[in-house]
Amino acid sequence: MRQKPISATLDGMINHAKKLSAALFCWLCCLSPVAAQAAADTLQFQLNGLAATPELLENANNALLAERARRVQTAGHALTADEIKNFYDNSPGVIRNALQPFGYFRPSIKLPGLTHPEGHWQMTFNIQPGVRLKITAVHVSIIGAGHNDPALQKLATHFPLHRGMPFDTNNYEKARDSLQQLANQQGYLHATLVQKEVRIDLVHYTADIQLQLDTGSRYYFGALTFTPTPLNERFLQRFAPFKSGQPFSSAQLLTLQQNLNKSGYFRQVAVLPAVDQASQNHVPTQINLQMKKQQAYSFSGGYGSFTGPRVKALTDFRFIGHNGQHMTLDAQLSATLKGLSAKYYFPGKNPLTDQYVVGAEIQKFVPDKEDESLSENFSVSRIKAWHDWQYTLSLNYLIEHYVVTTNDASTADFGRVLYPGIALSWLTADNLIDPHSARSISLVLRGASEHALSYNSFVQSEIKGKFFFSPTQYSRLILRGNIGYTIVKDLAHLPLTLRFFAGGPNSVRGYPYATLGPGRYLETGSIELQHTLHGNLSGAIFYDIGNAFDHIGTPLMQGDGVGLVYHSIIGPVAFYVARAESKKGKPLQVEFSIGSSFG
Description:
Blueprint: E1 6-9, H1 16-30, H2 33-42, E2 43-48, H3 54-75, H4 81-99, E3 108-115, E4 121-128, E5 135-143, H5 150-157, H6 169-185, E6 192-201, E7 206-214, E8 220-226, H7 233-237, H8 250-262, E9 266-273, E10 282-291, E11 295-304, E12 308-320, E13 325-333, E14 337-347, E15 354-365, E16 372-386, E17 389-406, E18 409-429, E19 438-448, E20 458-469, E21 475-488, E22 500-502, E23 516-519, E24 521-534, E25 537-549, E26 557-568, E27 571-580, E28 588-594
Parallel strand pairs: 2-4, 5-7, 8-10
Antiparallel strand pairs: 1-6, 3-4, 6-7, 9-10, 11-12, 12-13, 13-14, 14-15, 15-16, 16-17, 17-18, 18-19, 19-20, 20-21, 21-24, 22-23, 24-25, 25-26, 26-27, 27-28
Helix pairs in contact: 1-3, 3-4
């Protein structure tokens, strides 16, 4: 007798794989503990021939487990010998159904025997999956208002499934769902798959996929309405990645909500589209906002054996006025650096990625007993972010009184420098405080001319790199490098804060902070290996090399040593014993620091 073709809809065979796991869970939940334990102890499955295809083995095993649980639940007791034999005789049908979602419709299933060794029943199956069914035709059509939509037509033409591919329900469902998801993203909110069939003919062993999408009407973004806040509604509109009249998209609404959450102004954001209130297919959206407190305060600190204690306090005025401006006040205090700075931010066209900043700073810098400076710096800049990249264009005006000692002779000077600068940086990290994987590269270029409100002319560039790798679960490798180069007309009139320094925990260990230099050139490099000793405590070994100097060919100073690093919630607490390899006698230095190791 000729076998009839099979037409399997989505509500039937193609969801079988997902139903097996759900059925197994439900049956096991329904079993009494005693019955479940008895079933588990007395009946096991041996599936031969499926080891090369783990997904088949897992699904067939789950199907048998679900059937066993169903039979135990129905019987109300552990299965008897006759019931187990009946289960075994009918198991091939269960296995066939489990293989079909993966395209195996012609398996060979043999029952070599049912054994009962040491009180445990074991069902053994010899399975040959057979030839995998391939897709023989794919028909995708679009009807409704979006039948000529370019995006939908492109997906229909270049559908992820095509003739010759192995049939797999998981791949089919992903491809099918992508069609409806794209329709929703294009504004067809009531798009429906009016036809979704997989027609399987077991006689000719073919699989014909039939999909027809009825888009229905297209919807568009209507007015955005915000709950009253101190911020101007026109400013809030700039967070929206769309404009009124553009095709409605739930993905775009999610982006709007994420943008508002990232802005730093709000502690709670709810975006509520009102599709049922659409007028002429334009959907109004209500955005409910709850503001954060206007001011925020943060404090941080640390300790270095050469710099002594360091304290930093930051006050953030999150919003000032109605157009999103905000301001920060930053104060820091240590033996080598005392400073106070203020920055006022003006949001750009895209408040998340574009800002204009006006800043002022006063600081006293004392790198050692002989050198020091007192400076004031005024700046205007534009900051632009793009993914992990950020660039800053700035114009700075520096006024500085400084003392520099060279060859035991101290020189006091005063300088005014107007210099533009550009900075480009890339940063990606799994944790900014204490990362296991992180990469950072930054490039800075700045310069001044004595013909443009400056006492001196110079061009200066600096490139920095820092990389964290975790070659094993218990180890971390840290690489650092820094190169700086200055072309200056008169070195004596280059302010101290524009010169390079080296030495200290984040530079060349074994030499006190900022005691190498000052110089017009900078070269440093470091490699450090940390390995977990116990819990949050790691041991470290490192090698540093570098210097800040005025003359090419100046020897680079070397330092090496060992350390202990405790990874705390406020950042690593590091204790190093460093040896100054380039100094006479190779003296040892103890260095201690607390705080973020990356940023």
